[in-house]
């Protein structure tokens, strides 16, 4: 069964109570539960991992190289704008990924407009709240199916 890894960066564990005007009211657990169910329906396994630590996220991406992960959906959160290390990890493992942001980062502070990930990503989804993860998962599922007809 193909596996899709969903990675959530720092402070996304606070979803549900964190700046609802930017990030909505769903908890991370609710988002992950929906993604797992959507994956199951498509005959794929969805594994989620959240960390506030850059090192743990880098380690998880490195582990994905040998644990059968076919595709990654990632919201690097604040690391989007700072982390060459996480970018390099994704580049090194050569697993295709989609970048997701709940908020429209282009309509906020100027420092949020730059991403260390977008040029490597298969695609980027911003501004649709939690729905963005589901859209990314659907795109990942279609991409896996296209590669394995
Ligand atoms: C975010 C946008 C980032 O700028 C911010 O640091 C986050 C969340 C988003 O999902 O909109 O933590 O990635």
Topology (elements, then pairings):
Layout: E1 3-8, H1 20-23, H2 28-41, E2 45-50, H3 54-64, E3 69-75, H4 84-93, E4 97-101, E5 123-126, H5 131-147
Parallel strand pairs: 1-2, 1-3, 3-4, 4-5
The chain binds 1,3,4-trihydroxy-5-OXO-cyclohexanecarboxylic acid.
Assembly state (oligomeric): single chain
Mean pLDDT: 97
Low-confidence stretches: none
| Tally of alpha and pi helices | 5
- Helix share of residues? 25-40%
How far is it from the N-terminal to the C-terminal residue, by CA?
A: 14 Å
In terms of DSSP E residues, the strand content is 15-25%
Number of strands: 5
Profile the largest sheet: 5 strands, parallel
The bound ligands are: 1,3,4-trihydroxy-5-OXO-cyclohexanecarboxylic acid
C-alpha-based Rg, rounded: 14 Å
What strand line-up does the widest sheet have? 2-1-3-4-5
Coarse morphology: globular
Category by helix and strand content: alpha/beta
- Give the SSE order as H and E letters: EHHEHEHEEH
């Amino acid at each position: 069964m193909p596996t899709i890894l969903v990675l959530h960066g720092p402070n996304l564990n606070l979803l549900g109570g964190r700046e609802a005007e930017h990030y909505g009211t769903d908890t991370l657990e609710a988002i992950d539960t929906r993604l797992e169910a959507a994956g199951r329906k498509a005959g794929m396994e969805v594994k989620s991992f959240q960390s506030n630590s850059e090192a743990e996220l880098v380690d998880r991406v490195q582990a994905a190289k040998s644990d059968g992960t076919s595709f990654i959906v990632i919201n690097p959160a604040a690391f989007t704008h700072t982390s060459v290390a996480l970018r390099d990890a994704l580049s090194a493992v050569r697993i295709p990924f989609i970048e997701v942001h709940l908020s429209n980062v282009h309509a906020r502070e100027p420092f949020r407009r730059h991403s260390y990930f977008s040029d490597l990503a298969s695609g980027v989804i911003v501004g649709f709240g939690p729905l963005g993860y589901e859209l990314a998962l659907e795109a990942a599922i279609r991409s896996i199916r296209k590669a394995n007809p």
